[in-house]
Design a protein that fits this description.
Strand content: 5-15%
Strand order of the largest sheet: 2-1-3
Shape: globular
Radius of gyration: 19 Å
Helix content: 25-40%
Number of helices: 6
Distance between the termini: 27 Å
Length: 220
């Protein structure tokens, strides 16, 4: 299996959080490194498509996994956001170009832990504490949430999904065989005051994902 990865967690160099992708896949193509767009602060979906067109000629007998970043933030549609800095191998997305460190960081961390302990302010209390202190957001999602509210955030996510699905549609028209379109997780977009996704969270909105099966697709 050849893994074309726009996500730096799945990379060809090092293990991340105990997962060594090299032990599980025949070849890993680090599209996140070669196809990173500094303007958008992410990997545009067409870069993933270009990698497949190249490597399917090199490994014609292999199956492929294509890991797009979209609909994950940052957002590429009409509702735009500041993107991420280009990560190194194994660096999880989260270093926003708008990252802001200040003297309140320790206090924010303490109050966030207390808020989580007493189950107030949702799963991202630091966002709301920063907003209360009039500090800049540190993620693209929080930036959009502040500017446009939950409705605008959901629209930005929907637009991002449409962007990547258009790229997938263009790609599969030239492919044949069994194709599966799915996701590694869902996303919380303000439901019950919660946002993004986290480790060990079993909310159905995160763990129930689409599974779209195409048995055969040919050039039309």
């Amino acid at each position: 299996m050849v893994y074309i990865s726009a996500n730096p967690i799945i990379n060809s160099k090092i293990s991340v959080k105990g997962f060594n992708a090299k032990e599980h896949f025949f070849k890993i193509i680090d599209v996140w490194a070669m196809g990173w767009d500094e303007k958008w602060g992410t990997v545009p979906p067409e870069k993933v498509n270009e990698a497949l067109e190249k490597y399917k000629e090199i490994y014609p007998e292999r199956k492929f996994i294509l890991h797009y970043l979209q609909p994950h933030e940052p957002y590429l549609g009409d509702i735009r956001s500041v993107g991420f800095n280009k990560p190194n191998h194994g660096v999880v997305l989260g270093n926003s170009q708008s990252s802001y460190v200040n003297k309140y960081e320790v206090l924010i961390k303490i109050f966030s832990l207390l808020a989580k302990k007493f189950n107030i302010l949702g799963n991202k209390p630091s966002w709301k504490i920063r907003e209360f202190l009039n500090l800049p957001p540190v993620t693209p999602m929080d930036e959009v949430r502040r500017k446009y509210g939950d409705i605008g955030l959901r629209k930005a996510y929907e637009n991002n999904l449409i962007v990547v699905l258009e790229s997938v549609k263009n790609l599969v028209r030239g492919l044949s065989g069994r194709i599966i379109i799915t996701s590694d997780h869902g996303e919380l977009l303000g439901e019950n005051g919660n946002y993004s996704h986290g480790i060990k969270c079993m909310d159905p909105l995160l763990v129930e994902i689409p599974w779209f099966l195409i048995y055969e697709s040919k050039e039309q």
